[in-house]
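User: Just a sanity check before I run the rest of the batch. Below are the structure tokens for the first item. I only need the designed sequence back.
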């Protein structure tokens, strides 16, 4: 099953109370694609980088079965860069510097061979660009979309147009409250689902995630970790694991959606154990299945 991932590729300078990592490979599509790659070997990526994006980074992606022919390389340009510092609780962060560079003029062009993709995952880019991508796809079976506060506040009408064409929408609790205008997450979910996406996932960080469908609500726990080094990209990694499971099973029903949430949570729990993409680039399927089983065990009730 072909999977199209569209979003940013970036270099991050990350500082947490437990260390620092500079020039770290990041970006929404990078995290999504790497996470999905453990479940599928037919991933197509669309994005833009500068000439400072080294061959070793392409090799990493390609070795994971990710087709990067759709990534534009702008000669003499620089790749998107972000710098941030996390607070002690790891739930809040300060953006120290953002350099859009070549990403400022990103105009997503989906190659002809990608336009039959069955699954489409849109990272948290400008909703107008998300729409432009969807206009180039023939007949996707499933469209998954992410967003962020910046777009909810800056382009609410454009985002709502995108949501009319989205099947699964993923956002965090503060974003859900901002978009819906309601502090109650259950009410927020109803309001947002009425905008288009019938499947909604609200991430709650260390408190897990909520899945809303026509068949009810499913609550997934967060994995209890002793060491969390870097939460950057955890949400995108979640989306990749969620998408990967659905692509692997080739079934979209309430049971598989719930399993997908747990796989997404498992992948996100790996992501935070190292800086950047280091951890999710170096795990294997057995580790993932063990972590998934651990999630099942967390909610198991003994007789």
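Assistant: Here's the designed sequence for the first item:
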């Amino acid at each position: 099953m072909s999977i199209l991932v569209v979003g940013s590729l970036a270099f991050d300078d990350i500082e947490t109370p437990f260390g620092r990592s500079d020039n770290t490979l990041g970006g929404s599509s990078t995290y999504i694609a790497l996470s999905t790659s453990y479940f599928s070997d037919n991933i197509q990526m669309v994005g833009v980088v500068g000439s400072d994006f080294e061959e070793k980074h392409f090799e990493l992606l390609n070795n994971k079965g990710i087709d990067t022919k759709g990534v534009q390389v702008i000669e003499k340009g620089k790749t998107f860069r972000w710098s941030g510092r996390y607070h002690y609780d790891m739930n809040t962060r300060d953006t120290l510097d953002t350099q859009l560079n070549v990403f400022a003029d990103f105009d997503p062009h989906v190659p002809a061979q990608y336009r039959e993709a069955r699954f489409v995952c849109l990272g948290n880019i400008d909703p107008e660009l998300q729409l432009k991508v969807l206009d180039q796809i023939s007949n996707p079976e499933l469209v998954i979309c992410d967003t962020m506060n910046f777009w909810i506040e800056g382009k609410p009408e454009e985002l709502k147009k995108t949501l009319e064409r989205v099947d699964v929408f993923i956002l965090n609790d503060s974003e859900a409250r901002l978009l819906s205008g309601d502090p109650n997450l259950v009410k927020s979910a109803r309001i947002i689902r009425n905008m288009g996406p019938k499947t909604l996932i609200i991430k709650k960080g260390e408190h897990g995630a909520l899945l809303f469908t026509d068949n009810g609500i499913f609550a997934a726990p967060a994995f209890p970790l002793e060491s969390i080094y870097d939460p950057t990209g955890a949400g995108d990694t979640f989306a990749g694991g969620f998408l990967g499971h659905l692509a692997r099973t080739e079934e979209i029903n309430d049971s598989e959606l719930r399993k997908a949430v747990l796989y997404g949570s498992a992948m996100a729990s790996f992501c935070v154990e190292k800086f950047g993409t280091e951890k999710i680039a170096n795990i294997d399927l057995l580790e993932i299945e063990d972590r998934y089983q651990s999630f099942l065990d967390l909610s198991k009730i003994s007789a």
